[in-house]
Amino acid sequence: MKVGLFVPCYIDQFYPNAAIATLNLLKKLGVDVYYPLNQTCCGQPMANSGYEHLTKNCNSLFIQNFAGFDYIVSPSGSCVLHIKDHLHDDQREQDARNIRHKVYELVEFLTDVLKVENITASFPYKVGLHQSCHGQRGLHLSSMTELVDVPFSKPMQLLNQVKGLEIIELTRPDECCGFGGTFCVAEEAVSAKMGKDRVEDHLMNGAEFITAADMSCLMHMEGILKRKNSQVKVLHIAEILNAE
Amino acid sequence: MSRAAILSAILNNQPKQISLPKDLQFDLPAGAAVTEKFIQMVNLIGGRVVEIQRVEDINLYASEHFGAGERLVTPIEELDFYTPFTGEELPHQFVNTEFAVFETHFAVAENGAVWITEDRMGARVLPFICQHLGMLVSEENIVSNMHEAYNWIGNADYGFGTFIAGPSKTADIEQSLVLGAHGARSMTIFLLKNTF
Amino acid sequence: MSSSIKHPALSDIFNKDEARVNWHDDTLWWIRAKRDKVAHGISEWEILRETASQIKNNVLSNLHDYLMVFEANAQTNGIKVHWAANAEEHNKIVLSLLQSKGINQMVKSKSMLTEECHLNEYLERNGVDVIDSDLGERIVQLAKEPPSHIVLPCIHKKKGEIGQIFHEHLGTEAGVSDPQILTETARIHLRETFLTRRSALTGVNFAIAETGEFVVCTNEGNADMGAHLAEIHIASMGIEKLIPKKKHLSVFLRLLTRSATGQPITTYSSHFKKPRKGQEMHVILVDNGRSVQLGREDFRNSLKCIRCGACMNTCPVYRRSGGHSYHYAIAGPIGAILAPNLNMKEYSDLPFASTLCGSCTNVCPVKIDIHDQLYKWRQVIVKGGYTSTAKTVAMKVMEFTLSSSTRFKLAGKIGRWTLKNAPFTVNNQLNLWFKNREMPEAPKESFSEWYKKNNK
């Protein structure tokens, strides 16, 4: 099983530790994982801003980088959802279709493909889990409070295996953090307020760390935390699952 | 003429025929459980339930709750304050009605609503304009849910019919629930118990 | 309301008073929580949503025939049916009906369609006095504001402010803000109105093709009080309000109020089939862009909407920007997918007023794919040229950078170098991120740089 590691652009540039943890975690689990060096971005920033027609080159590049793998795994639910929903290429539509079906967000890859049941990680802290919307409502990484459904949570399923980790309950378990791509600057006032409110929920309920399967939400919340001079840190879920 | 233009635009733009889903079928509770659920829901929506053995028991309730000078109205012949209707009444003349009681067709357990049609209202405005509303429900006429309710109604003809669930209410001011918006301030269900 | 001030600016103003935003957000979240509680009490909830969605899909695919059947049956019942291609025609029909009877006063219950058509302003210009009878609508009418929510029109107002409005207009004592007292005042004031108005206009929640009747749902009883006392009852409805059969009401009435406010059903669900003796009953079927939207494959199912407002209550943006920030009669996520159909330029900002979190789609009782439509409207609006040149240039630069790994890596280096060595160039008020948030810390190397060193 050959797995291609897709590291979204902003993780590559700003959060290399999340990508390193993902890579090391996959290796630790015995996965034959490769990182295609020429990758850039899934194209979501343009597409969500209404410029999906400008993503053709990003799409071709993505296909060029990832067509050869059995699975493509990424530490970002949002970027994975974008690929699943919008990757197309007139020249290589069959390849695009294949990729749309074999691209996985890291957590779901661990729970659904590798069926990981014993994570050897230890993280003796109080952790708040942020349910990133695209992972939750788009990829169905967990049930959502809107639906009348049997509750489940794939990230929780993994975090529960981590030694010493204590999950805190949130007042609003699955509200958006307000990042939203270019929304964070185009709608600055609402975006920042959403971020503040989300962070406040974690703080009020005693989180020492906030984690998620999406670094972009965490980047947003980190910006808020730092502005508050809070000691609470954000960590991508891979970093916790890989913590010794 | 806009009618033709609208219809032709719709015909051009509507998607290919999509068929209707099958009617929903549920295993429904029956008997005491339905009555119990109904009573629970009526209380939840701000109404109250008074159990009675015979229709005439409403007279006692009325005399205990309303004074001699207050106008009580009902199209139910068994009651002391029975009011004959000609159908020609000006609706405005009911404005000073303190208490009005009607016989419903049936009640719905899942939401505490009762179904009543114009022929049992005396005048359409009466269940709305009266200050306090009484609704007579026979225990054997309580259905579980709205699917059963519409089965019950079937093709019955009426000029006007309504589900009424509790007293009129509003929460428009800061979401504070206030009973007695424009319709009745209270709703009392007179639940006529099954007699076996 | 025509305005060139767009959603971001209006939201910015709303957010100047953070305590008020918190209050607005908490109030609406509480309603969302009530909705969740009752929905979770119905084990077949998701089946109901699916069924409602399928019924509405059927309606849209047969709208032409259902409208004709409805018209014929309504006429048989003694209801007069009118057709209005747009807002202007609708308003003219209402006015001419009133004028034909020499009426210059009307009482109106809640109808978002008449907000969409700006009926009140039109009638007032033509010498007709209109009083809104829904308490929330009456409050915003007195305040000379549009409703900020389709179900809860004055959800943006605090009781103290409402008390002040009542003091000015209805003569309550200054400083009185108790909802009980204010509601009682409105009850007495509006009883007088109901008793003296010869005409009443109501909205329509559902119209039934099979029987030619229509259903109006209220909690206050104001639609019934108006309609049953007036000598002429006008019911205005969008053409999409039809449902095929009466039995389908069971599905919709189970969903509507549970989704809207968490109540099991509205206090009154009134079925108007025939005018009462001596009364005239009219239905106005209004298109106003709906037939166009029906032809937009990606957006037609927005016409399934039953106006419950659940998408607004759940929307994290709506709760923190307020209904008026949408500058359209219908606010929130559903408004943002309906408005551009009517005027793409005026409402080009609305599909962007969302993080695409998807909560709206999942509370929607008729399963409208709201957040997917927001995404699709963005594409249409950009292609239509309704975005700023600056944004298009920025996106082209982004595309240029991201479509080549060499350019991307170079840009990344420059970016990280800047953050590290010249943070003042980004950490300032020109950078909207920085206004309320710190920039991420620049790592010494990117992941790809690390990978090249460590995975030979």
TrEMBL record, chain A:
A GO cellular component annotation in the UniProt record: cytosol
InterPro entries associated with the record: Cys_rich_dom
GO function term, MF aspect, one: oxidoreductase activity
Cysteine-rich domain ranges (all copies): 3-84, 127-221
Top-level taxonomic group: Bacteria
Signal peptide region: none
One Pfam family from the record: CCG
Protein name: (Fe-S)-binding protein
Species assigned in the record: Pedobacter chinensis
Automatic annotation (TrEMBL), chain B:
Stretches assigned to the LUD domain: 49-192
Transmembrane segments: none
Family annotation (InterPro entries): FTHF_cligase-like_sf, LUD_dom, NagB/RpiA_transferase-like
Gene3D superfamilies tied to this protein: NagB/RpiA/CoA transferase-like
Protein name, UniProt field: Lactate utilization protein B/C
Organism: Pedobacter chinensis
TrEMBL record, chain C:
One Gene Ontology molecular-function label: metal ion binding
InterPro entries (UniProt xref): 4Fe4S_Fe-S-bd, 4Fe4S_Fe_S_CS, FTHF_cligase-like_sf, Helical_ferredxn, LUD_dom, LutB/LldF, NagB/RpiA_transferase-like
GO BP: lactate metabolic process
Domain spans labelled 4Fe-4S ferredoxin-type: 295-325
Pfam families cross-referenced by the UniProt entry: Fer4_8, LUD_dom
Keyword terms: 4Fe-4S, Electron transport, Iron, Iron-sulfur, Metal-binding, Repeat, Transport
Repeat keyword on record: yes
Keyword Nucleotide-binding: no
PROSITE patterns reported in the protein's UniProt record: 4FE4S_FER_1, 4FE4S_FER_2
PANTHER family: LACTATE UTILIZATION PROTEIN B (PTHR47153)
Protein name: Lactate utilization protein
Annotated source species: Pedobacter chinensis
